[in-house]
Every structure is written in C-alpha cells, then in structure tokens.
Design brief:
With 258 residues, the protein is mainly α. The protein has 2 domains: 85 residues, Orthogonal Bundle (Arc Repressor Mutant, subunit A); 117 residues, Tetracycline Repressor, domain 2 (Orthogonal Bundle), CATH 1.10.357.10. Helix content is 67%, strand content 0%. The chain contains 13 helices and no strands. Helix 6 packs antiparallel against helix 8 and helix 8 packs across helix 9. The protein starts with a helix and ends in a 6-residue tail after the last helix. The N terminus is likely disordered. Pfam families: TetR_C_1, TetR_N. InterPro entries: Homeodomain-like_sf (IPR009057), HTH-type_TetR-like_transc_reg (IPR050109), HTH_TetR (IPR001647), Repressor_TetR_C (IPR004111), Tet_transcr_reg_TetR-rel_C_sf (IPR036271). This is TetR/AcrR family transcriptional regulator.
C-alpha cells in the first residue's frame, strides 16, 4: 500500500501520463489552456499564492469554475502550468557558444534566476512542491548543466556546484521577494521601508546594540539605495562561489575530454 502511494505521489504531475491536454471535446468557447495559464500568473502576481483559487480565477476570466476544469483536473495542475510558464521568461544564454566564458554564462543564469524569484514571489514554494519538469523548466535546467560542465569540474562535482550556486540564488531571491512583498503591502518605496525599519530597530536598546556592532560592515557595504546594496551583496557572493569553483577545478586537475 505504501509503495503504491509513493508511486502515485511521484507521478502526480500535469506533465506525466499524457495529461498535458489543451482541452477536451465540447470545451467552452473563448477559453484555451494558454489563456487560463496567463490569467493564473497574473492573479498569483497580484494577489499571492494564499489567495488564489479556481473560483477567483474563473471570476477573472468571466466564466464558471467548471469551465476551467475542461482544461485541468485540479488546481495543482494549473499551478504547475503557471510555474513552467514563468520559467520561460529568463533570457537563457547559449551554453554551446564556444566563444563565451563559462563564468559569464553562469553569472547570467544566476541573475536571471534571481530576477524570476523576485518578480514572482509565489514561485519558490511551488518549486519545492512539484516535480518542476515542464518544458521551460527543463530547458533552463539543461542550460545550467551544460554551463557547469564547461567549468572543468570532474563529473562527480557537477551537481554539487549547481547546488552551491543555485540554492544560494534560490535563498537570496526568495528573501528579496519577501522583502519586496512587505514593501508593497506597506505602500512605500524600498528605500523608505528600509529607513523606517532601521529607525525602529535603532530605537530599541537590545537591537540598537547589534546595529552599532555591525555599523562598520553596513557602512562598507556601499550603495545609495536598497537595490544597489542588494545587487552588490549578490554580486560579491556569486563571485565567491565562482572563485570556489575555479579553486576546485585547479585542485582536481584537468578534466578528461567529454
């Protein structure tokens, strides 16, 4: 029984079992899966994952909820479609471009992934919830693998390097996305929110002491705006990871020809 349940869980995806249909016979006119998916992305961006429902989507499309079910069986299937839809947004560099340095390609992929996570704060929890094996997601993942293969790391180090870089980006982008959501909810700019937060924290004795201890770090961080500070931290952290890959390549010696 447990084995069958586990198999069902691993196969529970809109992309498996021939379930990527675009509609059944007799479907309502004026709708198609692409339109439904685009509306889902817009709603998730505007209202967030917690407030999303099939009923709310149907109202946005000016149809009944049952009309949406002509195209997907469940809300999970629709969220999978939306997740893969936004993975088609990043500008993916050509990993087969022999004239491009792998470091440039890797930094481009990392920046694009971070921007995706910040632009769509509902994406991070869905990445962990679903298999994430749609065509756009697989194309992005394939580009990452091809670029990291070009670093010269031994084959057994490829997945570790991908984890180091892109789990870092996942965490950074997720936290920045949460910050931007709080800013939007507060109705202020990021810089105004940061100034208010620092003033509030600095006015409490316990937290003020911590701020004072790290003032030299904050001052050295640089950046006239929150966006600049975030970009500088991200770039420096990414440089550390690239330097780590370079060091591991040098330590392991030349890789055998593929």
């Amino acid at each position: 029984m447990a084995a069958r349940a586990g198999e069902q869980a691993t196969r529970s995806s809109v992309w498996l079992g021939g379930r990527t249909r675009r509609g059944r016979g007799g479907q309502p006119s004026g709708l198609d899966r692409d339109r439904i998916t685009a509306a889902t992305v817009r709603l998730l961006d505007a209202e967030g994952l917690d407030r999303f429902s099939m009923r709310r989507l149907a109202a946005e499309l000016n149809v009944t909820a049952m009309s949406v079910y002509w195209y997907v069986d469940t809300k999970d299937e629709l969220l999978e479609l939306a997740l893969d839809e936004v993975f088609g947004e990043p500008a993916v560099p050509d990993p087969d471009d022999e004239g491009a340095d792998w470091r440039v390609l890797l930094r481009t992929l990392a920046r694009e992934y971070r921007a995706l996570l910040v632009r769509h704060p509902w994406v991070p929890p869905l990445i962990g919830r679903y298999l994430n094996i749609g065509p756009n997601s697989l194309a992005f993942s394939r580009a990452i693998h091809q670029v990291v293969r070009r670093t010269g790391l031994p084959v057994h180090g490829i997945t570790g390097a991908i984890s180091a870089v892109f789990q870092f980006v996942y965490g950074y982008g997720t936290i920045q996305g949460h910050f931007m959501s709080r800013v939007a909810d507060a109705g202020v700019t990021p810089d105004e929110y940061h100034a208010q937060m620092m003033a509030s924290v600095g006015g409490t004795p316990d937290t003020a002491a911590v701020i004072e201890e790290t003032r030299d770090i904050m001052d050295a961080r640089g950046g006239a705006t929150v966006d600049e500070m975030l970009d500088r931290d991200f770039t420096f952290a990414l440089d550390l990871l690239v330097a780590g890959i370079e060091a591991m390549v040098e330590r392991s010696g030349p890789a055998p020809d593929a």
